[in-house]
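Field reference: sequence -> structure
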Amino acid sequence: MADLDKKYNALNASRLSVAPMMDWTDRHCRYLHRLMSRHALLYTEMVTSPALVRGRAFHLLDHSPQEHPVALQLGGSDPDELAEAARLAAQAGYDEINLNVGCPSDRVQSGSFGAILMEQPALVAKCVGAMRRAVDVDVTVKCRIGVDDQDPKEILPEFLAHIVGAGCERVTVHARKAWLKGLSPKENRDIPPLDYDLVHRMKGLFSNLHISVNGGITSLDQAESFLEGGLDGVMIGRSAYHNPADILCQADRRIFGKGEDTTAEDAVQRMLPYIDAHIDAGGRLNQITRHMMGLFAGRPGARIWRRMLSENASGPGADRQVLLDALDAMQTLAEAQEAV
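Structure field:
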């Protein structure tokens, strides 16, 4: 029953998710995001199956119970190794295991996983099948619409047919090609054109497949439009990190139809006990505050908030007072501007 509950929770939560982002969506970031949205699905940074199975780096599975629903993203291309990594992730309590078939970095390519696997749909299907046999929680895939000279209109349906045949019931499609030759990972996030229409066509072809769209989505208005247009979910990446309050504070009400709006100020206050515990355990304040820089993006005083965190969070003895001082300074400036 517990595993069925996990599948149900992850399925419903995937109406809106925060993308897995290397160096960004660590456990501190996810804890912060959870304070703003009770229902959105959160993803870890990509963890490679060799790191877990061969390297026994089990600390990479660490997460807080408060983060749920939360999914682990795996990178790899060996079906047996991915199956073992999935078992470890399920034992650690993750609600979903996601296979990365979208990362275009050179390091990932050299390991024969990530976006380069778009060229090997049969192998991806074997990986999905092995992972599904190993665990009872959902096994999902995050992919691109193609790589390099592939024609997305031809290869994406073939790719999806392979993973559906292996039992995959949910996929997230980054609606851009990945150019593995000639573009950097950063350029691959912006330069290849978006093809949302193709993602919509895939929903028409695979009506029983739960399809989320990813890429270039910067607002809840866009997310609502995709959901109203027939897609099952929306995954937001950089905007959810750099402007988390704009994406997450209204998400429960607008996307999930339950719960009340939250505020960035409330998130700061609710982070304080977590920060205290982290510092008491030997951690550093800036390990957490680096994820909080954009909390007040676009609001009066946002600059002073960022500056005070940047200047003071890494100093010796830095603790919760840094945030309280920054919050006070920001609010004082905002009040002064309103009075003018």
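Note: The mean pLDDT is 94.
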